[in-house]
Write a structure and sequence with these properties.
Number of domains: 1
Number of strands: 2
Order of helices and strands: HHEE
Strand order of the largest sheet: 1-2
Helix content: 40-55%
Amino acid sequence: MAKRVQDEKPKRDAKARAWMKENISEQEARYQAIVKEMDDLEPKRKRWYAEFLEIIQTRGFNVTGDMRRKIRKSELPKKPKGRARVVF
């Protein structure tokens, strides 16, 4: 089997490893703060979903231009099991 450049991982010096460790811990702290904020929004998010579903059933939504279409209750999507997963 041929030896390829991409197969060899260069060694990092201690300074670079320390910098990476510090950066990773900072990123994880930021990520946890974002996750907490998104989890705290869960009650509001449920209300937003309910309001949206109410609006598309009563007023409808614009299909094209000024044409509106109301969504029947039978056409509404079923609520998925579990928590809402927010991707950020």
